[in-house]
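Worked Example 4.2. Consider the chain below.
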Amino acid sequence: MLDLYYWPTPNGHKITIFLEEAGIDYRIHPVDISAGDQFKPEFLALSPNNRMPAIVDHNPDDGGEPISVFESGAILIYLADKTGRFLPTETRARKTALEWLMWQMGGLGPMAGQNHHFVQYAPERIPYAMDRYVNETNRLYGVLNKRLEGRDWIADEYSIADMAAYPWIRPHERQLQNLDDFPHLKRWFERMQSRPAVITAYAKAAPWTDRPAVTEEGKKLLFGQKAQN
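Applying the procedure from the previous section yields the following structure tokens:
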């Protein structure tokens, strides 16, 4: 049994997709990030950056005490290595899957996240910021579209690279992107969307998805953090 500290964000969905694909038993512990659950001491002990998701593996391969892992990319690699699935072991193929995982972690996720912020949540409509991140999201969609030309999956075989990228493409309309402009990406997206494990992963989010919009107090928690000395 594995404990997943989770909220239905793109980074949270990455992990439920993997767990459903691999058939791992897990318990969801919701971390309501608009209510400040991410600042509770028991969560910070697992995720010192006060970001979800995090996991606790009660059956680590070394047979020792439970292992906690934070950061969604690190969690995907940990789970792939633990199960021997969705991350190639051959040197060149593994390299490629990890390249595209890091592309998502360092590019698609942060840029789409800023897109969400300035388009959806910012108290002021700042045209420069909106254009900057909508355009950069568009550029990254183009990179992925080109990569997927002639391929079914990002790293040739279905892998954690696909699991990482899909949840950030799913809200494409909120990001002011049109998938019809990216035919190879659209074909991949539809293939991902129809996978039973992906369908189940998103269904697991239902108890926490249909909630009121983020309150002003919630926005202060999410967007107004500074260092705590």
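The CA atoms of residues 146 and 184 lie 7 Å apart. The two ends are 36 Å apart (CA to CA). Compare this with Example 4.1 before moving on.
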